[in-house]
């Protein structure tokens, strides 16, 4: 029954075989029948061989939410994508009821071997610097100073580097040869007996001088031809089916679960009423247990690709749900240097001066992909704990925050993040002691979503 189902599927999917119906016509000569069916069968085989499986896997990897979010984006922790050579994405995020961010991301051509480069521009919705706001006492002075804010009063430039090789990074090209070797095992999986049967048919036709054999031999030869072509079609269908049964499509998920290191440098410029400028450096590392590296640890004793494919299927079958979910941990450390700040407003007796300060931020994030019953990804869930330590800033307090973010995937290019944030107290002295906030926004890939 299974072979009949596969045969039906491949017959319907291949026009040459569908039209031929894998049988000789009643008024057709034996030699013409064999030539027609043999040509159609080999055309179908060639068409399958030409399918760009690596490109299919590349697109699958590209659609996955890989990477670690970096400076200027608190809405999520695992949605940045450093895969395509040329791409751009825009993200608008509401940090709370008063502040939003717009992020433009572009992945640049690599100018360093084995290194991906990402450039971001972040426009933060400008706000009046909190210590300055608290210092203003004149009637209407807060409103006057807020009117000085514009779209460029609080912007950031961010440069990120991510190393890529076979062991780290989520870039399919680094693993293309490994996938091709596994796929080739399927392509080479032919039954030698089929070739012998085809050779026997050719011998009989050649013995007759490529003319129709005697009438008494035609029923037997016709049956041989039709039986051979049907078995050949079934074998091709099984080869097509093996791409699914051997779980090779999960290769994309394993690449997307590879460890990833991102090093980031950023500069945040603020106008005088928005606060001091900031310079930061960050290192972020993300790890998932169910990655391509774990599969590699299982094939160390394999001596050929057939063994490797068998082990791949066993690993993928045993851990399919976990591989698709891609449970991962991301840890990051960021050092921020806050410039000296001064603001004077004699008319309101304001003279605000602050020395240089330093902030150390550490975070730990757990992320998990969510999917439907068909294994297609529908969204992501991220839980992030972050602690900010201010070593020499008397106006700011050390504080911890916990962020829960759900990112709903609408299409491959469009997603909707929604987050809930809890902080043990406000950022500045005098702020409320405990605070809940809600994040919402959207992410849209402008172009490059099918990059390699």
Structure, described:
The protein has two domains: 2-50 and 180-250; 67-170 and 258-290 and 326-447, monomeric porin ompg (Porin). Helix content is 33%, strand content 32%. It has helices spanning 2-13, 15-20, 30-49, 53-62, 130-135, 141-146, 176-187, 192-207, 218-245, 251-256, 292-298, 305-318, 320-325, and strands spanning 87-94, 100-108, 115-124, 154-163, 260-270, 278-288, 328-338, 341-345, 350-354, 357-371, 377-390, 399-409, 414-423, 435-447. Residues 1-20, 65-90, 92-97, 428-433 and 446-452 have low confidence and may be disordered. It is an alpha+beta fold. The strands form two sheets. It has a twelve-stranded antiparallel barrel with strand order 1-2-3-4-5-6-7-10-11-12-13-14. Helix 3 (30-49) runs parallel beside helix 9 and helix 8 (192-207) runs antiparallel to helix 9. The protein is built from 13 helices and 14 strands.
Keywords for this structure?
452 residues, alpha+beta, 2 domains, 12-stranded antiparallel barrel, two-stranded antiparallel sheet, 13 helices, 14 strands, 33% helix, 32% strand, disordered N terminus, disordered C terminus
Assembly annotation: single chain
Distance between the termini: 40 Å
Rg, please? 31 Å
How many domains is the backbone divided into?
2
Characterize the biggest β-sheet. Answer: 12 strands, antiparallel, barrel
Q: What is the SS-derived class?
A: alpha+beta
Bulk shape: elongated
């Amino acid at each position: 029954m299974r072979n009949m189902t596969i045969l039906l599927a491949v017959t319907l999917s291949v026009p040459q075989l569908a039209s031929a119906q894998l049988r000789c016509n009643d008024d057709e000569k034996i030699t013409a029948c064999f030539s027609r069916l043999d040509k159609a069968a080999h055309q179908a085989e060639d068409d399958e061989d030409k399918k760009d499986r690596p490109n299919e896997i590349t697109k699958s990897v590209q659609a996955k939410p890989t990477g670690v979010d970096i400076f200027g984006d608190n809405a999520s922790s695992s949605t940045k994508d450093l895969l395509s050579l040329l791409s751009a994405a825009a993200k608008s995020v509401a940090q709370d009821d008063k502040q939003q961010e717009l992020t433009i991301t572009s992945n640049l051509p690599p100018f360093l071997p084995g290194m991906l480069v990402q450039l971001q521009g972040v426009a933060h919705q400008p706000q009046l610097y909190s210590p300055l706001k608290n210092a203003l006492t004149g009637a209407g002075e807060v409103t006057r100073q807020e009117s000085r804010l514009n779209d460029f009063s609080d912007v950031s430039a961010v440069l990120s580097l991510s190393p890529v090789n076979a062991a780290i990074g989520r870039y399919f090209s680094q693993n293309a040869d490994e996938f091709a070797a596994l796929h080739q095992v399927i392509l080479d999986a032919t039954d030698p007996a089929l070739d012998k049967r085809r050779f026997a048919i050719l011998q009989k036709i050649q013995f007759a001088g490529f003319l129709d054999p005697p009438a008494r031999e035609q029923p037997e030869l016709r049956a041989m031809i039709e039986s051979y072509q049907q078995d050949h079609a079934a074998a091709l269908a099984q080869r097509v089916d093996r791409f699914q049964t051997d779980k090779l499509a999960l290769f994309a998920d394993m690449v997307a679960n590879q460890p990833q290191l991102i090093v980031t440098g950023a500069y945040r410029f603020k106008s005088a009423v928005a606060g001091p400028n900031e310079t930061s450096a960050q290192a972020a590392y993300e790890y998932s247990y169910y990655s391509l590296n774990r599969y590699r640890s299982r094939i160390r004793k394999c001596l050929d690709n057939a063994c490797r494919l068998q082990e791949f299927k066993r690993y993928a079958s045993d851990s399919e749900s976990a591989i698709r979910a891609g449970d991962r941990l991301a840890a990051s450390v960021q050092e921020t240097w806050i410039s000296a700040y001064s603001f004077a407003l004699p008319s309101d007796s304001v003279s605000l001066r602050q020395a240089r300060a330093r902030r150390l931020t550490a975070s730990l994030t757990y992320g998990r992909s969510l999917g439907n019953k068909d294994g297609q990804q529908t969204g992501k869930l991220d839980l992030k704990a972050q602690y900010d330590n201010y070593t020499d800033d008397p106006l700011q307090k050390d504080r911890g925050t916990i962020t829960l973010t759900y990112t709903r995937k609408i299409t491959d290019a469009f997603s909707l993040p929604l987050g809930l944030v809890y902080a043990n107290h406000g950022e500045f002295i005098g702020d409320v002691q405990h605070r809940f906030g809600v994040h919402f926004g959207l992410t849209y890939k402008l172009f490059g979503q099918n990059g390699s």
